[in-house]
Structures are given as C-alpha cells and as structure tokens.
C-alpha cells in the first residue's frame, strides 16, 4: 500500500451515492468531493484559478504556469487539490526549504533535504469562495504534513490583510519577510508540524 493511500484525509469523501439508471443498472458517478495530491496534468487548471484570484488583487501570481509545472514535477506530494465532481475548486502548492527563514531563492527552489514546507500558494475558485473552503483545505493539508516523516514546520509569506486568516489556521507571524515581489512586502508566518512517530500513535497515520 502506498504512503498516500494510507492517509484517511486524502481519500475521497463520498457525499453522493451512485444512482441507478431506469433499467435498474447502477452507473458510476464521480466522487462528490475528493482531496488528492496534484499532478503536472493539473497545472493548467491550477494556473487558471490562481491567475483569477491574484492578478485582480496584486497584479501578479505567486507561481506562473512554468513554475507550477516545475513544482508539480519535483514534489507533487507537497501539493493538495480539492475536487468537486472531478473539477478542481481549490488547491495548495508547497515545496521543501532548508533554512530558518524564507529568502528570495525560496520562490523557485525545492530543497529535497529540507524540513520546512514552504507553502507557495493557496487559492480557491471564484465560484466557491466565502464558503470556508480555504480554511478546510489548509486544515487537511496540515494534517497531511503531520504524517510526512521529514516535515517539521510549515512556512508561508502573505500580505498584511491575509494575516488574520492564517492566524485562524494556527500560523504565527515571524515578522517582515525578506522576500519582496516588485513593490509588495510580506509577513512571514510559521506553523509547527509534529513528528511522524507522534502522529502514528495518535491519528492512525
């Protein structure tokens, strides 16, 4: 059994049962709600959601299409997508980092021996916003990270207006981030990730 298949919060959430056809034969339906790691084939759908979510606010995207493909090829296990009936509605993309704080290089690098998960982006499709999906997805992502033996903490950077959202998700502000993008400045935030052995004893991982 693969490591991912052993994680209960990545398995499909069956909210709708299969329906029967008029002839009495059952026909297959897609899971009403499913969480899974993303693949390079999801890159275009990811970018479309991200572009709409960020360009109207900041004028740029945290990750461009080639960078999305880059991370989904290098470390797909550090991504998580929420699908409704096969359609991507929200996602997180992360990579590994090996220093205490984020630097400009963290925007494009994946450090395979790192123990900090750098969360590059969380975005929700415009028709599914204001429904709490961002908070739910982040909760599931952090639960997933707790079952990865190498993960010790999660790091992210955000603009001031998003700090309250991430604080509600359990992140603590570390102060101004070294990273800048154009004229944008960010707050760096951190969430501890408990060790693998603890989670195996306490959550069935």
UniProtKB/TrEMBL annotation:
Uppermost EC category: transferase
Pfam families membership: Acetyltransf_1
Assigned GO CC terms: cytoplasm
CDD domains, A to Z: NAT_SF (cd04301)
Matches recorded under InterPro entries: Acyl_CoA_acyltransferase, GNAT_dom, SNAT-like
Keyword Hydrolase appears in the UniProt entry: no
EC numbers, comma separated: 2.3.1.87
UniProt entry keywords in alphabetical sequence: Acyltransferase, Biological rhythms, Cytoplasm, Melatonin biosynthesis, Phosphoprotein, Transferase
Cellular location(s): Cytoplasm
Reaction it catalyzes: a 2-arylethylamine + acetyl-CoA = an N-acetyl-2-arylethylamine + CoA + H(+)
GO process annotations (BP): circadian rhythm; melatonin biosynthetic process; response to light stimulus
Keyword Phosphoprotein: yes
GO molecular function terms listed in the Swiss-Prot or TrEMBL record: aralkylamine N-acetyltransferase activity
Pathway, per record: Aromatic compound metabolism; melatonin biosynthesis; melatonin from serotonin: step 1/2
Family under the similarity heading: Belongs to the acetyltransferase family. AANAT subfamily.
Protein name (database record): Serotonin N-acetyltransferase
Organism: Eudyptes sclateri (Erect-crested penguin)
